[in-house]
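Narrative of accomplishments. A recurring question from our advisory board has been how the design workflow behaves on a single, concrete structure rather than in aggregate. To address it, we present the structure tokens for one chain from the evaluation set, followed by the sequence designed for it. No filtering or post-editing was applied between the two.
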């Protein structure tokens, strides 16, 4: 008798069906075995119809509640995974932002030195008796490129804040 019950509970189609034992076996060992074999309730004969219906109704309501809880848990688990993924992405973006900030800081000092050297060369060239316009033009291009690089680094740094 127990083998068909085990097969029933092992079958995915029937595994969620609540099993209520209705039997004349009333010893404590029999009751314990009934629960060990997967029963959710144990009713002995003679039984009251009203009591049996109430037990069945209660177990069916519990099954509905359990199913609702499973659905909510599945939904919450999906949401948790989405939030975890988003937090991971934000952490990566913050790390990239920090790295860019560090690179920007490290580049600005050499660019400042180049900028000052360029300005100094430009001033010296302008105060010569015959300044070389080509040199001055090249120095202005270098200054423009330095400003562009600094501006680009600031834009990247601000983007990741």
């Amino acid at each position: 008798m127990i083998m068909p019950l085990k097969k029933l509970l092992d079958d995915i189609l029937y595994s969620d069906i609540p099993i209520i034992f209705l039997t004349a076996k009333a010893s404590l060992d029999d009751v314990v075995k009934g629960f060990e074999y997967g029963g959710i309730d144990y009713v002995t004969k003679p039984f009251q119809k009203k009591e049996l219906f109430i037990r069945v109704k209660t177990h069916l309501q519990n099954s509905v509640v359990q199913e609702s809880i499973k659905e909510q848990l599945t939904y919450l688990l999906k949401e948790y995974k989405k939030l975890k993924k988003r937090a991971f992405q934000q952490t990566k973006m913050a790390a990239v932002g920090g790295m860019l900030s560090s690179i920007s800081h490290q580049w600005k000092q050499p660019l400042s030195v180049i900028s000052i050297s360029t300005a100094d060369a430009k001033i010296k060239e302008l105060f010569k008796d015959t300044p070389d316009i080509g040199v001055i033009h090249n120095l202005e291009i270098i200054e423009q490129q330095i400003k562009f690089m600094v501006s680009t680094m600031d834009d990247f740094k601000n983007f990741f804040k």
